[in-house]
Amino acid sequence: MDAKERRGLLATRSNPDARLDYVSALEGHIEPAARAQRTTVGVRYVPDKLIIDPVAFGRYLGALGTLPWESLEKVAVTILDDINNEIVARWVQVALSAPNGAHPGLDNHGVMLEDRQPKWDNPALLSRLRRY
Question: At what angle do helices 54-64 and 72-87 cross, to 10 degrees?
């Protein structure tokens, strides 16, 4: 699956009020065929003109699970790039967490990436978010 096909799974809708800063959050999982346990995926974003359709996001994560990935970091970067390409959010955060025991001797493996449009900032809004 190429990037265009993968990104096409991220159907969007118009933001109901683009004048407001608010956080939209989606959480799901990727179930890689090679592993019995799933990777948790959390996305939070402050929309600009578009929002992600939640049902489409679930299909998108399902498709990601069918692809071979070299690392959790690569999956996180791909998700961030795809979201930035499709909705151009004011601010976006992507957090992934591998299942416990995914790596021998390691209790936790997580990745968190964040991006924002230049000059956008709303510290009062972002300070209210729980930390991953």
Answer: 140
